[in-house]
Amino acid sequence: MTDFRVEGRGRVNRAKPVSFTFDGETYRGFEGDTVASALLANGVHLMGRSFKYHRPRGVVTAGSDEPNALVGTTRGKGRFEPNTRATIQEIYPGLTTESQNKWPSLKFDLGAINDRLYMLFSAGFYYKTFMWPRSFWDSVYEPLIRKAAGLGKAPTEVDPDHYASRYLHCDVLVIGSGPSGIAAALTAGRAGSKVVLVDETAEMGGTLLSEPSVSIDGRPAWDWLAGAMAELDAMPNVRRMTRTTATGYYHQNMIGMVQKLTDHMGDVPEGAPRERMWRVRAKEVVLAQGAIERPMVFDGNDCPGVMLAGAAQTFLNRFGVLVGKQPVVLTSHDSAWYSAFDMADAGAKVVAIVDTRESVPQALQNDARARGIPIHLGHTATATKGRLRVAALRINPVHNGKVGAEKMLSCDAVLVCGGWTPSLHLFSHTKGSLDWDAEAKAYLPGHKTEDVHIAGAGRGLWGIAAALEDGTKAGADAVRSLGGSAGAATFEVADDRTGSGITQKELPTDRSPGKAKAFVDFQNDVTAKDIRLAVREGMKSIEHVKRYTTNGMATDQGKLSNMNGLTIAADALGKEAPQVGLTTFRPPYTPTTFGAFAGYHKGAHFEVTRKTPIDDWAEENGAEYEPVALWRRAWYFPQAGEDMHKAVARECKATRESVGIFDASTLGKIEVSGPDATEFMNRMYTNPWTKLGVGRARYGLLLGEDGFIRDDGVIGRMRDDLFHVTTTTGGAARVLNMMEDYLQTEWPDLRVWLTSTTEEWATIALNGPNARKLLQPFVEGADISADAMPHMSVVECTVAGFPSRLFRISFTGELGFEINVPARHGRVLWEKLWDAGQQYDICPYGTETMHVLRAEKGFIIVGQDTDGTVTPEDAGIGWAIGKKKIDFVGKRSLDRPDIVAKGRKQLVGLLTDDPKTVLTEGAQIVADPNQPKPMKMIGHVTSSYWSEVLGRSIAMALVEGGFDRMDDRLHIPTETGGTVTAKVTGTQFYDPAGERLKVE
Amino acid sequence: MLLIQCPYCDDALPELEFAYAGEAHIDRPQDPSALSDEEWRDFLFIRSNVKGVHAERWRHINGCGRFFNALRDTVSDRFVTSYKAGEPRPDTSGKEPAQ
Ligand SMILES: [Zn+2]
């Protein structure tokens, strides 16, 4: 194994060797290396296989724009991550990495057969190939796509890491710590602004880390950099954050940033979060994100060993690694000439500099000749040789558009540069306009929508001096926008490397362009041919070209490919690039973990779990739970050996025969009080309230203004000016919001106060013929005998010594009481009733039994038997409307033509012909089971249960014209292909006369 | 995340504290029964759906609880101003959206 490390170069810590593995082999690097730089130091370029054709791929970049070198990393049990960019992941002792998209091995991969079938997999392949026959979807296409789809392997275990999140406020947020970012931070920091400077990599400096030959203010670049960092760190108003990526730029200068905290550590401190999401609100933002180098598009440009010239320069100067010993440089920009010089000066034998331009500054040519580097101007590249590693580059002269005779250049690396694209992803998030600059052949920031300044290469400037100058100006501008004052600093820069270049489409060739595998998007395997084909097939907008070819749609969001793709599409359309348009960048800037977004909101913290004061008792007594809104409610209380069906049947029987106890604390409760409370209630609810006496209760029905049922609940009148309103469990917040809305905005003149009291009361329901006998001994201050306290009444008294609002109401059809006591007494009262209830074989029941008992009586559950399109008449509860009332919310809508029209769905009962068959809730209903498919569905089952007391199944359903279908037989097709037949009935299945309420 | 000015709290606070509540300045008719079916339909369902400055209701639901009105540009998603319920829509012609 050859060592490509260069003595005396780079910033890695040579005193700290680090061993890690890649595909099972152990490699050695140094502290400060990335996986990519360490592998390159060991002569390894081949790092993965491509997504579609499984072509061998090597590293292309040295940063977060890397499309090829994606690896799986393992950081211990359960800690596997696919698609980690090898150019970002730092190495540490014990790090385990593996290549992706290969089988059985990286060097010999069977999936590469796709590469041989290249002609079949062209643009729009998915759209064309998988269109028909339809039956092929399940059996052929989907399994095939599923197998082939996706980059890397998805983790199979639950992520054991935890993720933090924090807010941050600052005056000036500087994103990017190259020369312009540092200059901006220095300037704003010196002016006293609260500054945050962030960079996605482990070390600040940006381009300066790759260009140590420049000197600033008379000091070598790296000395100047160290001084700048020290100065920033000495300022208490400046915070520096490395390994922190600004992933999204949102409204009003809110920036989402993800800070990697432990992925670079071998020994992770116990309990340390892996990443932290920062939500930053900055008064001013400086974007100093630099520019992204573009590849050249030519046949074989994806061969391992072909990489960006700027990346090679970074690997050499920042990491001390020569990416090749005999590189060819292929460029259309001056910058790559400097990469060639650095490589030569570090001991590489640069085979040649091939420039597509016919004229290049004389000074560069002189510098090349002084190093003995051959120059080929006005040349194109037409092929590479080598499969797992580049062995030669085929070049040809181009004269007056004619491609001349080939020449093969043997090499071990091809360093390309097709120009630079200003990195404006975050600016694009803000909907700032990007304007085409014809001279720079680039999109540059135009109209701004946020308080943002763009500095340096991000707006097309080139060279360290220009970046520093522009950065300090941006910093000063930001300070002035904040009302402060700051002067721009001056910097003396020597040995700066300025330059320019051109942008071009795919390089001309003497071979058939149709056969060229000239890649534009490495990650999605999109070639120049694909883009031209898309245009030929009618895609005129770049948005269509993008979707048809998938160019720029991979996880790198086209950082390398968008401009090349656009240039080629524009050429195919015979238009200028700005006429073809630009695709939109969206957050996140780079792939971001779900963990970072989820933060603390996982597991039990994902959502609040509301528990009643009696919840503990239910848990101790073996309750099964079901979630209702945010509450967890006791669902049923199984005894040994019971399933749900048996437990519910027993609970129903016990309640109907003696007494059941039920925790109803989750019911929404709202106090409506004030001199105009009655008027308010009259306007909100359908029912009349004026004549409801103090101490009486009434079923209240709430509609929307559209006339549809929104909520219901029993409402007690406590005083002339005080109503105790109950709502459904899930509807409490919604109802209060609706009441507040009308009170605040429509009737602000009403003197009414609304208070949510849901959690102030524990509510215990006793139902069954023995309910009063059980309760009576506990009650003081009220007579609850049948005569003194009729059905639908309420009284204030004490129960077991606790102050109480005691209702006599029934949601079961049995004699029933609901005892409200202050929440803190709920469990004590429950246990007292429980103990005393033993003589009546008291039975605790859950929500399932509650549902069955109410369904036997035909009581609706809003949201189950109604769905937001059901009127009171539809639900068969038109009696709840105060007919003499002039107005209430929703009243006018009850006269709308479509509400009074025939054929509306109405709530009816269904009794199956086979009494043992329990229908499926949600099942569709048809009038004729023999009609051809698709059948006309006339309704659906809303509630369906086994009724123990009736010894048969019961159901409710919403059916078109249901009230006119009494005793008709309807049909319910089942999941298994059969049909159940049922008779239409009323909804009061049990004790329709209400005799059971009359217990003395 | 937007910052929204609550005219009652007199403070610009994060969007998380607020709930949207539909178009503003649609008063419930004094006597709905006097409206034709078409007029009632329009009150219920017909909204302006403007491209540009939209008068809309918000509630500071996780704050003071008050409903208020705001002008927001539906193109840029920027708030122009906010004002108390019951106040007339301010004339903001020619005014740049607030930052
Ligand atoms: Zn407020």
From TrEMBL, chain A:
GO terms of molecular function: sarcosine oxidase activity
Domain Aminomethyltransferase C-terminal, first and last residues per copy: 905-991
Xref: Gene3D superfamilies: 2Fe-2S iron-sulphur cluster binding domain, sarcosine oxidase, alpha subunit, N-terminal domain (3.10.20.440), BFD-like [2Fe-2S]-binding domain (1.10.10.1100), FAD/NAD(P)-binding domain (3.50.50.60), Probable tRNA modification gtpase trme, domain 1 (3.30.1360.120)
KW Oxidoreductase (keyword) present: yes
Single Gene Ontology BP annotation: tetrahydrofolate metabolic process
Coiled-coil regions, chain positions: none
Keyword Oxidoreductase: yes
Domain called SoxA A3: residue spans: 516-599
Boundaries of every GCVT N-terminal domain copy: 615-885
Superkingdom assignment: Bacteria
InterPro entries per record: 2Fe-2S-bd_N (IPR042204), BFD-like_2Fe2S-bd_dom_sf (IPR041854), FAD/NAD-bd_sf (IPR036188), GcvT/YgfZ/DmdA (IPR028896), GcvT/YgfZ_C (IPR029043), GcvT_C (IPR013977), GCVT_N (IPR006222), Sarcosine_oxidase_asu (IPR006277)
Keywords associated with the record: Oxidoreductase
PANTHER family: AMINOMETHYLTRANSFERASE, AMINOMETHYLTRANSFERASE, MITOCHONDRIAL
NCBIfam families: soxA
Similarity comment: Belongs to the GcvT family.
Descriptive protein name: Sarcosine oxidase subunit alpha
Gene source species: Primorskyibacter flagellatus
Lineage: Bacteria, Pseudomonadati, Pseudomonadota, Alphaproteobacteria, Rhodobacterales
From TrEMBL, chain B:
Domain of life: Bacteria
GO molecular function: sarcosine oxidase activity
InterPro entries found in the cross-reference section: SoxD, SoxD_sf
Gene Ontology biological-process entries: tetrahydrofolate metabolic process
Protein name according to UniProt: Sarcosine oxidase subunit delta
Organism (species): Primorskyibacter flagellatus
